[in-house]
Design a protein that fits this description.
alpha/beta, 2 domains, binds nicotinamide-adenine-dinucleotide, single chain
Length: about 250
Protein backbone atom coordinates (compact mmCIF):
# COMPACT_ATOMS: atom_id res chain seq x y z
CA UNK A 1 0.00 0.00 0.00
CA UNK A 2 1.70 3.16 -1.12
CA UNK A 3 0.83 6.83 -0.94
CA UNK A 4 3.86 7.92 -2.96
CA UNK A 5 3.34 11.21 -4.81
CA UNK A 6 0.16 11.93 -2.87
CA UNK A 7 -0.45 15.07 -0.84
CA UNK A 8 -2.82 14.34 2.03
CA UNK A 9 -4.36 16.76 4.51
CA UNK A 10 -5.50 15.50 7.91
CA UNK A 11 -7.56 17.46 10.46
CA UNK A 12 -7.26 16.96 14.22
CA UNK A 13 -3.79 15.51 13.71
CA UNK A 14 -2.43 16.75 17.03
CA UNK A 15 -3.17 13.53 18.92
CA UNK A 16 -5.15 10.30 18.79
CA UNK A 17 -6.12 8.77 15.46
CA UNK A 18 -5.31 11.94 13.52
CA UNK A 19 -1.70 12.00 14.72
CA UNK A 20 -1.27 8.27 14.15
CA UNK A 21 -2.71 8.66 10.65
CA UNK A 22 -0.32 11.50 9.84
CA UNK A 23 2.63 9.29 10.79
CA UNK A 24 1.24 6.25 8.96
CA UNK A 25 0.48 8.19 5.75
CA UNK A 26 3.96 9.76 5.80
CA UNK A 27 5.52 6.32 6.36
CA UNK A 28 3.55 5.10 3.30
CA UNK A 29 5.18 7.83 1.22
CA UNK A 30 2.66 10.70 1.31
CA UNK A 31 3.41 14.38 1.79
CA UNK A 32 1.20 15.02 4.79
CA UNK A 33 -0.26 18.34 5.88
CA UNK A 34 -1.11 17.69 9.52
CA UNK A 35 -3.52 20.26 10.95
CA UNK A 36 -5.00 20.84 14.38
CA UNK A 37 -6.49 23.69 16.40
CA UNK A 38 -3.76 23.09 18.99
CA UNK A 39 -0.33 24.13 17.75
CA UNK A 40 1.43 22.72 20.84
CA UNK A 41 0.15 19.23 20.01
CA UNK A 42 1.34 19.61 16.43
CA UNK A 43 4.85 20.24 17.78
CA UNK A 44 4.98 16.49 18.56
CA UNK A 45 5.09 15.91 14.80
CA UNK A 46 7.91 18.40 14.21
CA UNK A 47 10.79 16.87 12.30
CA UNK A 48 8.87 13.77 11.17
CA UNK A 49 9.87 13.14 7.53
CA UNK A 50 7.05 13.84 5.11
CA UNK A 51 4.92 15.84 7.57
CA UNK A 52 4.32 19.59 7.52
CA UNK A 53 2.07 21.07 10.21
CA UNK A 54 -0.49 23.88 10.04
CA UNK A 55 -2.76 25.26 12.76
CA UNK A 56 -6.39 24.94 11.65
CA UNK A 57 -9.61 25.29 13.62
CA UNK A 58 -12.10 23.43 11.44
CA UNK A 59 -15.00 25.41 12.92
CA UNK A 60 -13.59 28.60 11.36
CA UNK A 61 -14.63 29.09 7.73
CA UNK A 62 -12.08 31.87 7.18
CA UNK A 63 -9.20 29.65 8.34
CA UNK A 64 -10.31 26.83 6.03
CA UNK A 65 -10.57 29.17 3.04
CA UNK A 66 -7.15 30.72 3.76
CA UNK A 67 -5.51 27.31 4.05
CA UNK A 68 -7.12 26.04 0.83
CA UNK A 69 -5.84 29.14 -1.00
CA UNK A 70 -2.33 28.51 0.33
CA UNK A 71 -1.96 24.78 -0.35
CA UNK A 72 -1.36 22.79 -3.53
CA UNK A 73 -4.20 20.59 -4.79
CA UNK A 74 -4.74 17.56 -2.56
CA UNK A 75 -4.87 13.88 -3.50
CA UNK A 76 -6.44 12.93 -0.21
CA UNK A 77 -8.20 14.50 2.76
CA UNK A 78 -8.98 12.85 6.08
CA UNK A 79 -11.61 14.82 8.00
CA UNK A 80 -10.87 13.45 11.45
CA UNK A 81 -11.95 16.24 13.82
CA UNK A 82 -14.90 15.57 16.08
CA UNK A 83 -16.23 15.88 19.61
CA UNK A 84 -18.09 13.50 21.94
CA UNK A 85 -21.02 14.95 23.84
CA UNK A 86 -21.96 12.73 26.80
CA UNK A 87 -25.65 12.52 27.65
CA UNK A 88 -29.17 11.66 26.64
CA UNK A 89 -31.48 14.01 24.78
CA UNK A 90 -32.63 15.29 28.20
CA UNK A 91 -29.11 16.52 28.98
CA UNK A 92 -28.57 18.17 25.62
CA UNK A 93 -28.69 21.97 25.54
CA UNK A 94 -29.11 23.87 22.28
CA UNK A 95 -25.54 25.10 22.67
CA UNK A 96 -24.20 21.54 23.08
CA UNK A 97 -26.16 20.45 20.04
CA UNK A 98 -25.00 23.39 17.93
CA UNK A 99 -21.39 22.78 18.95
CA UNK A 100 -21.58 19.07 18.06
CA UNK A 101 -23.21 19.75 14.68
CA UNK A 102 -20.70 22.48 13.91
CA UNK A 103 -17.58 20.49 14.79
CA UNK A 104 -18.70 17.03 13.67
CA UNK A 105 -20.62 17.86 10.48
CA UNK A 106 -20.51 21.49 9.31
CA UNK A 107 -16.72 21.51 9.47
CA UNK A 108 -16.64 18.59 7.02
CA UNK A 109 -19.05 20.38 4.67
CA UNK A 110 -16.77 23.43 4.74
CA UNK A 111 -13.62 21.35 4.25
CA UNK A 112 -15.16 19.58 1.27
CA UNK A 113 -16.41 22.82 -0.27
CA UNK A 114 -12.94 24.32 0.01
CA UNK A 115 -10.84 21.32 -1.06
CA UNK A 116 -13.03 19.33 -3.50
CA UNK A 117 -12.16 21.56 -6.49
CA UNK A 118 -8.46 20.74 -6.05
CA UNK A 119 -9.19 17.08 -5.31
CA UNK A 120 -11.16 16.92 -8.59
CA UNK A 121 -8.25 18.43 -10.50
CA UNK A 122 -5.94 15.76 -9.08
CA UNK A 123 -8.52 13.03 -9.76
CA UNK A 124 -8.64 14.23 -13.35
CA UNK A 125 -4.86 14.35 -13.84
CA UNK A 126 -3.90 11.33 -11.67
CA UNK A 127 -6.92 9.07 -12.10
CA UNK A 128 -7.97 9.10 -8.46
CA UNK A 129 -8.41 11.16 -5.32
CA UNK A 130 -10.01 10.29 -1.99
CA UNK A 131 -11.82 11.80 0.97
CA UNK A 132 -12.15 9.92 4.24
CA UNK A 133 -14.60 11.22 6.84
CA UNK A 134 -14.45 10.17 10.49
CA UNK A 135 -17.78 8.73 11.61
CA UNK A 136 -18.18 6.09 14.34
CA UNK A 137 -19.89 2.80 15.13
CA UNK A 138 -22.03 5.10 17.32
CA UNK A 139 -24.05 6.54 14.42
CA UNK A 140 -26.72 5.14 12.09
CA UNK A 141 -24.81 1.86 12.56
CA UNK A 142 -25.74 1.39 16.23
CA UNK A 143 -27.19 3.31 19.18
CA UNK A 144 -25.27 3.73 22.43
CA UNK A 145 -26.37 5.15 25.76
CA UNK A 146 -25.49 8.80 26.41
CA UNK A 147 -24.52 9.44 22.80
CA UNK A 148 -27.51 11.42 21.41
CA UNK A 149 -25.64 14.33 19.82
CA UNK A 150 -22.69 12.14 18.94
CA UNK A 151 -24.70 9.36 17.29
CA UNK A 152 -26.89 11.81 15.39
CA UNK A 153 -23.98 13.86 14.07
CA UNK A 154 -21.91 10.81 13.13
CA UNK A 155 -24.96 9.46 11.26
CA UNK A 156 -25.01 12.77 9.39
CA UNK A 157 -21.34 12.23 8.49
CA UNK A 158 -22.33 8.93 6.86
CA UNK A 159 -25.10 10.63 4.87
CA UNK A 160 -22.75 13.43 3.82
CA UNK A 161 -20.16 10.84 2.76
CA UNK A 162 -22.62 8.93 0.56
CA UNK A 163 -23.90 12.15 -1.04
CA UNK A 164 -20.40 13.35 -1.89
CA UNK A 165 -19.48 9.90 -3.20
CA UNK A 166 -22.55 9.93 -5.47
CA UNK A 167 -21.86 13.42 -6.79
CA UNK A 168 -18.26 12.79 -7.81
CA UNK A 169 -18.06 9.04 -8.56
CA UNK A 170 -17.81 9.59 -12.32
CA UNK A 171 -14.89 11.97 -11.79
CA UNK A 172 -12.81 9.44 -9.83
CA UNK A 173 -13.09 11.30 -6.52
CA UNK A 174 -14.01 8.74 -3.87
CA UNK A 175 -15.47 9.43 -0.44
CA UNK A 176 -15.76 6.92 2.41
CA UNK A 177 -16.52 7.02 6.13
CA UNK A 178 -14.55 5.27 8.86
CA UNK A 179 -16.52 3.85 11.81
CA UNK A 180 -14.12 2.88 14.59
CA UNK A 181 -15.01 1.00 17.73
CA UNK A 182 -13.73 2.24 21.08
CA UNK A 183 -10.19 3.49 20.54
CA UNK A 184 -7.71 4.23 23.29
CA UNK A 185 -6.87 7.89 22.65
CA UNK A 186 -6.29 10.93 24.89
CA UNK A 187 -9.94 11.99 24.61
CA UNK A 188 -11.18 8.50 25.56
CA UNK A 189 -8.87 8.60 28.58
CA UNK A 190 -10.37 12.01 29.39
CA UNK A 191 -13.89 10.57 29.25
CA UNK A 192 -12.81 7.73 31.55
CA UNK A 193 -11.07 10.10 34.00
CA UNK A 194 -14.07 12.43 34.21
CA UNK A 195 -16.57 9.61 34.93
CA UNK A 196 -17.89 9.35 38.50
CA UNK A 197 -16.11 5.97 38.83
CA UNK A 198 -13.19 5.90 36.35
CA UNK A 199 -12.23 2.27 37.07
CA UNK A 200 -15.76 1.11 36.32
CA UNK A 201 -15.98 3.44 33.31
CA UNK A 202 -12.91 1.82 31.76
CA UNK A 203 -14.34 -1.66 32.43
CA UNK A 204 -17.61 -0.60 30.78
CA UNK A 205 -15.81 0.69 27.66
CA UNK A 206 -13.86 -2.60 27.41
CA UNK A 207 -17.00 -4.68 28.07
CA UNK A 208 -18.73 -3.27 24.98
CA UNK A 209 -15.87 -4.55 22.81
CA UNK A 210 -16.39 -8.29 22.15
CA UNK A 211 -12.64 -8.86 21.69
CA UNK A 212 -12.23 -7.86 25.33
CA UNK A 213 -9.95 -4.90 24.71
CA UNK A 214 -9.96 -1.34 23.46
CA UNK A 215 -8.67 -0.67 19.97
CA UNK A 216 -5.31 1.02 19.60
CA UNK A 217 -4.70 3.75 17.04
CA UNK A 218 -2.54 1.21 15.21
CA UNK A 219 -5.63 -0.98 14.75
CA UNK A 220 -7.07 1.90 12.69
CA UNK A 221 -4.17 3.22 10.63
CA UNK A 222 -3.84 0.37 8.07
CA UNK A 223 -7.49 0.86 7.07
CA UNK A 224 -7.08 4.65 6.97
CA UNK A 225 -4.02 4.38 4.70
CA UNK A 226 -5.84 1.85 2.52
CA UNK A 227 -8.90 4.08 2.09
CA UNK A 228 -6.69 7.02 1.07
CA UNK A 229 -4.63 4.89 -1.33
CA UNK A 230 -5.33 3.62 -4.83
CA UNK A 231 -5.60 0.14 -3.34
CA UNK A 232 -9.21 1.08 -2.55
CA UNK A 233 -9.81 2.68 -5.95
CA UNK A 234 -13.12 0.78 -6.48
CA UNK A 235 -14.44 1.58 -2.97
CA UNK A 236 -16.63 4.64 -2.56
CA UNK A 237 -19.64 5.73 -0.53
CA UNK A 238 -18.96 3.06 2.10
CA UNK A 239 -19.10 3.04 5.87
CA UNK A 240 -16.08 0.99 6.86
CA UNK A 241 -16.52 -0.50 10.33
CA UNK A 242 -13.31 -1.19 12.22
CA UNK A 243 -15.07 -1.96 15.46
CA UNK A 244 -13.66 -5.25 16.71
CA UNK A 245 -16.95 -6.99 16.07
CA UNK A 246 -19.36 -4.74 17.97
CA UNK A 247 -21.79 -4.64 15.04
CA UNK A 248 -21.51 -8.30 14.00
P1 LIG B 1 -8.83 12.99 20.32
O1 LIG B 1 -10.29 13.27 20.56
O2 LIG B 1 -8.03 12.47 21.44
O3 LIG B 1 -8.12 14.27 19.73
C1 LIG B 1 -8.88 15.19 19.03
C2 LIG B 1 -8.00 16.23 18.38
O4 LIG B 1 -8.90 17.14 17.76
C3 LIG B 1 -7.14 17.02 19.32
O5 LIG B 1 -5.81 17.07 18.84
C4 LIG B 1 -7.78 18.41 19.30
O6 LIG B 1 -6.86 19.47 19.49
C5 LIG B 1 -8.39 18.43 17.92
N1 LIG B 1 -9.47 19.39 17.75
C6 LIG B 1 -10.45 19.68 18.64
N2 LIG B 1 -11.23 20.68 18.16
C7 LIG B 1 -10.72 21.00 16.93
C8 LIG B 1 -11.07 21.97 15.96
N3 LIG B 1 -12.10 22.81 16.15
N4 LIG B 1 -10.34 22.05 14.83
C9 LIG B 1 -9.28 21.21 14.64
N5 LIG B 1 -8.90 20.29 15.54
C10 LIG B 1 -9.61 20.20 16.67
O7 LIG B 1 -8.73 12.01 19.08
P2 LIG B 1 -9.56 10.68 18.74
O8 LIG B 1 -10.16 10.07 19.97
O9 LIG B 1 -8.64 9.91 17.88
O10 LIG B 1 -10.81 11.21 17.90
C11 LIG B 1 -10.66 11.67 16.58
C12 LIG B 1 -11.96 11.45 15.84
O11 LIG B 1 -12.32 10.06 15.92
C13 LIG B 1 -13.15 12.22 16.35
O12 LIG B 1 -13.95 12.64 15.25
C14 LIG B 1 -13.91 11.18 17.16
O13 LIG B 1 -15.30 11.47 17.25
C15 LIG B 1 -13.68 9.95 16.33
N6 LIG B 1 -13.87 8.67 17.02
C16 LIG B 1 -13.20 8.41 18.17
C17 LIG B 1 -13.37 7.16 18.79
C18 LIG B 1 -12.63 6.81 20.05
O14 LIG B 1 -13.02 5.81 20.71
N7 LIG B 1 -11.58 7.50 20.42
C19 LIG B 1 -14.24 6.22 18.22
C20 LIG B 1 -14.89 6.53 17.05
C21 LIG B 1 -14.70 7.76 16.44
Amino acid sequence: MTLTNKTILITAAGQGMGAASARACAAAGASVIATDVNGDLLDNLAGVAGIETRVLDVTKADQIAALAADLPDLDGMFNCAGVVHHGTVLDLTDDDWDFAVNLNVTSMVRMCRAFVPGLLRRADSQGSAAILNMASMASSEKGFVNRTAYGATKAAVIGLTKAIAADFVAQNLRCNALCPGTVDTPSLQGRIASAPDPVQAEKDFIARQPMGRLATVDDMTPTIVHLLSDGSRFVTGQTVLVDGGVTI
